[in-house]
C-alpha cells in the first residue's frame, strides 16, 4: 500500500516533527524499502536534524521544497539521501513561502511511504499544500487543555479540505503524544477519548528521553535504540495507522 501521510497540528511542540521521523523508521522496520520525508515547515527542524543546519541554511530555493511546491521542479529532482539508509528528504528552505495555489510536484519518486511535516499554524498555505497531496492525516495532540482545544480547528480544516479538494483523504486520527504519568494528562486523555471516540489512536507516544536523543542524533528512535520501549510504541502506532487506513478503505468500498 502506497501512502502519503501528513502530520498536522494546530499548535507547536506536540511531537509532530519527531513523529514524522520516527514513523519513517517504523515503516522501514515494517518492510518499506524507501521512505521520503517532505519538510514543509519553514523552521526546517526535520531537514536540519537529518542534513545538518549549515547545509540546509546554504540551500537555494530551487534545491528545496519551495521549488517542488511551485512545481518548477519535482520531488525527485531535489530529494537528498540522509544518513539513515532508506530515508530520503525533500528539505525545507530558510525563507519558505508557499503560494496559496501551491501544490507538490511528486514526480520522480517511487518510495513506499511519503511523510509530510507541516507548520503548526493550520492557516499556513503549506498545510493546505500538504493536504492536497495526502492520502492519510495524523494529528498529534499533547493531553493538556490547549491541546484539546486545538482539535476542533483541525477537524474543521480536514472537513473543508476533504469536501473541496481531496475527497479521498483519510483521517487516521488524533495521536496522543508526549504523554506523562501525571493527573492532568490522564484526565485529558480520557476527555479526548470521550469527545472523539474512534478518532483517537489506541496507542500513545510517551514523553521519553529516547525521542529527544534520537532527534539530536538525526535518526529514528527505532534505529538508535531499537529495543527501547519508545521504539516499540512507535512501531505499534505505525501498525495501528496501517490498520486504520485499511478499515477506512474497506468501508469506502462497501
Could you characterize what this model shows?
With 254 residues, the chain is of the alpha/beta class. It has one domain: P-loop containing nucleotide triphosphate hydrolases (Rossmann fold, 3-Layer(aba) Sandwich), CATH 3.40.50.300. The chain is 46% helix and 15% strand. It has helices spanning 16-29, 45-51, 53-57, 65-70, 75-78, 125-133, 145-164, 183-196, 209-217, 221-224, 229-253; strands at 3-7, 35-39, 80-81, 87-90, 113-117, 136-141, 170-179, 205-206. The chain has an eight-stranded mixed sheet with strand order 3-4-2-5-1-6-7-8, with helices on both faces. Strand 6 (136-141), helix 7 (145-164) and strand 7 form a beta-alpha-beta unit. The chain starts with a strand and ends with a helix. The relative contact order is 0.19. The mean pLDDT is 93.
Amino acid at each position: 500500500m502506497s501512502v502519503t501521510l501528513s502530520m498536522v497540528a494546530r499548535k507547536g511542540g506536540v511531537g509532530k516533527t519527531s513523529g514524522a521521523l520516527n514513523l519513517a523508521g517504523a515503516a522501514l522496520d515494517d518492510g518499506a524499502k524507501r521512505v521520503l520525508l517532505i519538510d514543509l515547515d519553514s523552521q526546517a527542524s526535520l531537514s536540519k536534524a537529518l542534513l545538518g543546519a549549515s547545509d540546509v541554511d546554504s540551500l537555494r530555493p530551487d534545491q528545496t521544497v519551495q521549488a517542488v511546491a511551485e512545481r518548477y521542479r519535482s520531488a525527485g529532482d531535489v530529494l537528498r539521501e540522509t544518513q539513515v539508509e532508506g530515508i530520503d528528504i525533500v528539505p525545507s528552505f530558510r525563507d519558505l513561502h508557499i503560494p496559496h495555489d501551491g501544490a507538490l510536484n511528486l514526480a520522480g519518486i517511487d518510495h513506499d511511504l511519503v511523510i509530510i511535516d507541516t507548520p503548526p499554524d493550520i492557516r499556513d498555505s503549506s498545510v493546505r499544500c500538504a493536504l492536497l497531496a495526502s492520502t492519510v492525516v495524523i494529528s498529534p495532540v499533547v493531553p493538556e487543555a490547549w491541546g484539546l482545544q486545538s482539535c476542533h480547528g483541525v477537524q474543521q480544516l480536514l472537513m473543508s479540505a476533504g469536501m473541496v479538494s481531496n475527497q479521498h483523504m483519510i483521517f487516521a486520527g488524533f495521536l496522543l503524544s508526549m504523554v506523562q504519568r501525571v493527573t492532568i494528562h490522564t484526565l485529558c486523555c480520557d476527555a479526548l477519548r470521550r469527545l472523539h471516540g474512534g478518532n483517537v489512536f489506541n496507542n500513545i507516544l510517551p514523553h521519553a528521553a529516547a525521542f529527544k536523543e534520537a532527534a539530536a542524533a538525526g535518526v529514528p528512535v527505532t534505529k538508535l535504540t531499537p529495543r527501547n520501549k519508545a521504539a516499540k510504541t512507535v512501531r505499534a502506532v505505525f501498525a495501528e495507522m496501517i490498520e486504520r487506513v485499511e478499515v477506512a478503505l474497506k468501508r469506502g468500498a462497501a
